[in-house]
């Protein structure tokens, strides 16, 4: 029988084309080797090897981990019961931090949406320009942005808000673009078939598909920005971060625990809102959510009313946040003008004071980022799958995994670093920093994996099960198969997040490059700050290039 005749003959159901081959599954044919298959298998293997090499370079061993775990437990024992010396002041600082986070997230949403759509464009020049802006915003630490805006407009909450907003454009733009790339092209083609123009194809064929992912990304970025505001507070922006730094400075671990628990409560609140809104948007696509429509007016159903209420409520909340932090149109215009003047302080970069440490510092930074991403991904992927309703075996497992996930995500990364450094000591600073970032990475990866797993198509899973596959084969072929492109993107995104975390480690002496950056920021050596940030920027660009290439092959 000819190949054409074989392709026309009836065959058992098989996973969607986006899934990897059904190797070992009865009834599913073997797929020939291809670039996509090689990338699907090759990237995890290469990444695992690099992760193990990085951990060995840093001296992260099982014996040291066991000893360090005992020190962490002993430290936590001294941190209970939690206390709050001045609850009223603490909660006032929480509100200040929350307003900064809301304003920064709102400021980034519209530019990130525009850049995300442009970055998914088929026009190469447009796509490259948009990706360049996104990577630039993501590669520079938010603290460096804050230093730049302080030099431009002076001290106050607005520099912190602008720093959070500009940095958020990098993450949101990347996630928005990936969501657009993963959207079903059939819907877009169907809309185009009705004679719709480019704007109508975007509004009717793309945005309804990506809305749940976009809302989840915005809300996730909100709680990241809340924790980012904690870091900015620790370096002078005020808010709850100043309370946390003060408590650790006086080794008052019980007070630090109290402040951390307040932070956890706020993140739990944001998580609850995220789950509710995400469920509302996903439910809107079900058959039961579509009412019978007569004539041309869409009726005001409960779901439509809730969606509009949430949207207008978000706009009102953003307006209040802008007012509280002083982000008026006039202030933003002054910030833009001041930024142009401040560029002369940061350029050209001065490499002379840091020429001797850049090589070793970059190697250490890359090793910490690789090791932390490797460990965090190993823990985060199963945790994220267990937290997803569509994958978890039962509600008990899902609830337990979701609880662990929210608990990990709610801990400020600065607090994690402080705890691990206090337990391991500054002599093992890189090890402490790697483990702290690994915990943070596990939460990051698990959150993104859980969100993507909620939107898995049921068809490939049903096809694999109907072919006689067991639970393990269903997981590896139909679940991980559909998630392969996103898992690759998530892993590389976590890697570039960890590359940029070198400043957080440097604040407490857990990284040579970050410590040098913090010292030159305090000394107002802005041209040297640029010299330190530029090589890390190049590393992030390299990771982004690899990520874009792999996503293209795996699509």
From TrEMBL:
This protein's species is Nonomuraea terrae
Q: How does it sit in the membrane?
A: Multi-pass membrane protein
* One Pfam family it belongs to: BPD_transp_1
Q: Could you tell me the keywords of this UniProt record?
A: Cell membrane, Membrane, Transmembrane, Transmembrane helix, Transport
Similarity field = Belongs to the binding-protein-dependent transport system permease family.
Task: List compositional bias (Pro residues) regions by residue number.
Answer: 10-20
What the entry lists under Gene3D superfamilies is as follows: MetI-like
Q: Does the keyword Secreted apply?
A: no
Membrane-spanning residues: 38-55, 98-123, 143-166, 256-277, 305-323, 366-392, 404-425, 431-450, 497-517, 529-550
Superkingdom per UniProt? Bacteria
Q: What is this protein called?
A: ABC transporter permease subunit
**Lineage per the UniProt record:** Bacteria, Bacillati, Actinomycetota, Actinomycetes, Streptosporangiales
Location of region: Disordered: 1-31
């Amino acid at each position: 029988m000819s190949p054409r005749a074989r392709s026309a003959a009836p065959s058992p159901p098989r996973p969607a084309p986006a899934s990897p081959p059904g190797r070992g599954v009865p009834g599913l044919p073997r797929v020939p080797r291809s670039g996509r298959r090689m990338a699907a298998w090759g990237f995890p293997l290469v990444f695992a090897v690099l992760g193990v090499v990085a951990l060995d370079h840093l001296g992260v061993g099982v014996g040291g981990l066991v000893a360090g775990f005992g020190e962490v437990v002993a430290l936590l024992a001294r941190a209970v019961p939690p206390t709050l010396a001045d609850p009223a002041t603490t909660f006032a600082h929480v509100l200040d931090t929350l307003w900064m986070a809301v304003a920064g997230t709102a400021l980034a949403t519209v530019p990130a949406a525009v850049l995300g759509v442009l970055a998914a464009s088929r026009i190469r020049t447009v796509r490259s320009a948009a990706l360049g802006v996104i990577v630039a915003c993501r590669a520079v630490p938010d603290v460096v942005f804050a230093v730049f805006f302080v030099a431009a407009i002076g001290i106050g909450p607005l520099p912190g808000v602008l720093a959070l907003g500009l940095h958020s454009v990098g993450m949101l733009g990347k996630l928005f673009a990936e969501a657009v790339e993963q959207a079903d092209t059939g819907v877009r083609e169907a809309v185009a078939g009705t004679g719709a123009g480019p704007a109508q194809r975007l509004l009717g064929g793309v945005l309804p598909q990506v809305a749940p992912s976009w809302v989840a990304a915005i809300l996730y970025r909100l709680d990241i920005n809340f924790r980012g505001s904690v870091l900015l507070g620790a370096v002078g922006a005020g808010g709850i971060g100043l309370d946390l730094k003060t408590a650790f400075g006086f080794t008052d671990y019980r007070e630090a625990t109290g402040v951390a628990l307040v932070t956890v409560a706020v993140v739990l609140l944001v998580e609850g809102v995220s789950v509710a809104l995400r469920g509302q948007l996903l439910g809107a696509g079900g058959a039961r959510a579509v009412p019978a429509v007569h004539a041309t007016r869409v009726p005001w159903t409960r779901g439509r009313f809730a969606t509009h209420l949430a949207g207008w409520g978000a706009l009102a909340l953003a307006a209040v946040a802008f007012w509280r932090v002083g982000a008026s149109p006039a202030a933003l215009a002054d910030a833009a003008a001041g930024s142009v003047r401040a560029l002369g302080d940061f350029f050209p970069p001065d490499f002379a004071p840091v020429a001797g440490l850049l090589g070793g510092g970059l190697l250490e930074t890359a090793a910490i980022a690789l090791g932390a991403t490797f460990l965090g991904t190993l823990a985060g992927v199963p945790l994220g799958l267990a937290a997803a309703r569509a994958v978890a075996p039962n509600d008990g497992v899902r609830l337990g995994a979701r609880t662990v996930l929210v608990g990990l995500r709610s801990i400020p990364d600065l607090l994690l670093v402080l705890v691990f450094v206090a337990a391991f000591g500054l002599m093992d600073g890189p090890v402490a920093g790697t483990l702290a970032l690994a915990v943070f990475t596990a939460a990051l990866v698990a959150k993104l994996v859980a969100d993507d797993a909620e939107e898995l198509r049921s068809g490939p899973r049903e096809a694999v099960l109907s072919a006689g596959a067991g639970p393990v084969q269903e997981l590896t072929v139909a679940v991980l198969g559909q998630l392969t492109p996103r898992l690759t993107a998530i892993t590389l995104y976590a890697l570039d997040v960890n590359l940029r975390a070198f400043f957080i480690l440097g604040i407490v002496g857990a990284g040579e490059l970050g410590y040098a950056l913090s010292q030159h920021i305090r000394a107002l050596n802005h041209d040297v700050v640029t010299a330190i940030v530029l090589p890390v920027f190049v590393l992030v660009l390299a990771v982004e290039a690899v990520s874009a290439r792999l996503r293209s092959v795996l699509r």
